[in-house]
Write a structure and sequence with these properties.
There is one protein chain. The chain is built from twelve helices and twelve strands. With 329 residues, the chain is an alpha/beta fold. It folds into four domains: 93 residues, no CATH class; 44 residues; 80 residues, 2-Layer Sandwich (Nucleotidyltransferase, domain 5), CATH 3.30.420.10; 95 residues, no CATH class. Strands 1, 2, 5, 6 and 7 form a five-stranded mixed beta sheet that branches. It has a five-stranded mixed beta sheet with strand order 10-9-8-11-12. The chain is elongated.
Length: 329
């Protein structure tokens, strides 16, 4: 098999054929030529006619056997009626990039798993190059229609840097995808999202789930007043768990704290009361059985917490209102 044939099958560069391969000090250089005759603008992608001089361009590709790999191709400079004089576009690289799409996609994937510094060391690129690649990939793959027709959305914050730096994330509950992100976690941050939606985009929203943040709720009441505000189950059950722990502490104090055998026993019931029964060990379930027999106040608190958690696990959601009324009574 010829070397050019082997590299054609291995690289599978769209719209290009390998014409030669050389092994240089910097790495493997694969020379290719475009198969198409039509000229397209490297920025907007529309067909153009006028051409200027031809120059050789080089793109960094994924490494081959531990060696850096570069794609090299002669491209024409074209005159676009909208963008002006630009280099003609290629299918294997994004506009303005000096790395192939495959290389940039791998860097963007790694950016979801680790920090920039190890990515730069692994891919052998500059630290700032990692950020520019991520920006290009996100801009290329971001769905322009992601904010249209939103009905059920969820809002939450995520920490992205030390010293309490947060991002507000908005997700579409139907698809599970994050559709909007902005730095900050207050009412003004979420209000920016509603402003970007516009009047038509806000009209379709029927419900918003949040984490009991007063700032988020304020923005929702102002931006989409007709939408239902839903507190997410994790935070609701968390408050119930805190209430159970308050009952346990009160019983611990009443039993003389850890100075008595009764106080030590109450202290040891903490995880049996807070953990879901299906996640408890045999020892923790045994302690829960002792609580049922020895301290009805503690066991009642545990049952109230579990009945509230069951509200979010009902097979038929239509029975939820009746279940909640019974729990409140």
């Amino acid at each position: 098999m010829r070397v050019t044939t082997a590299f054609n099958r291995m690289l599978e560069l769209p719209g290009a054929s390998v014409t030669g391969v050389s092994f240089e000090r910097r790495g493997v250089v694969v020379r290719v030529r475009l198969r198409r005759r039509r000229k397209v603008c490297g920025r907007c992608g529309q067909l153009v006619r006028a051409t200027h001089e031809t120059g050789v361009r080089r793109w960094r590709h994924l490494d081959l056997g531990g060696q850096r790999c570069f794609i090299e191709c002669a491209l024409r400079r074209v005159r676009c009626p909208d963008c002006g004089v630009k280099v003609e576009g290629v299918a294997w690289a994004r506009p303005g990039a000096r790395h192939t799409r495959d290389f940039e996609d791998v860097v963007a994937f790694l950016a979801q798993q680790m920090a920039k510094t190890p990515i730069a060391a692994l891919m052998r690129v500059d630290w700032e190059t990692v950020g520019r690649i991520v920006e290009r990939v996100v801009a290329d793959k971001l769905d322009a229609e992601r904010l249209q027709g939103l009905v059920l959305i969820g809002v939450d914050e995520v920490s992205w840097r030390r010293r309490h730096r947060y991002l507000t994330c908005v997700a579409d509950h139907r698809s599970g995808d994050i559709v909007w992100i902005k730095e900050g976690r207050n009412a003004q941050t979420l209000q920016a999202f509603f402003d970007e939606l516009g009047e038509g985009g806000r009209a379709s929203i029927r419900a918003v789930s949040i984490d009991m943040s007063a700032g988020y709720e304020q923005a929702i009441r102002r931006g989409v007043p007709a939408a239902e505000v839903c507190f997410d189950p994790w935070h609701v059950v968390k408050l119930a768990g805190e209430a159970v722990d308050q009952v346990r502490r009160a019983e611990w104090n009443a039993e003389g704290k850890s100075k008595t055998a009764g106080g030590k026993w109450v202290k040891g019931t903490r995880w049996s009361l807070l953990k879901a029964p299906e996640r408890q060990s045999v020892e923790q379930l045994a302690i829960l059985a002792e609580v049922q027999q020895a301290n009805r106040r503690l066991y009642r608190a545990f049952l109230l917490k579990e009945e509230l958690r069951l509200l979010y696990q009902l097979e038929d959601p239509r029975t939820a209102p009746e279940h909640l009324r019974a729990w409140l009574s």
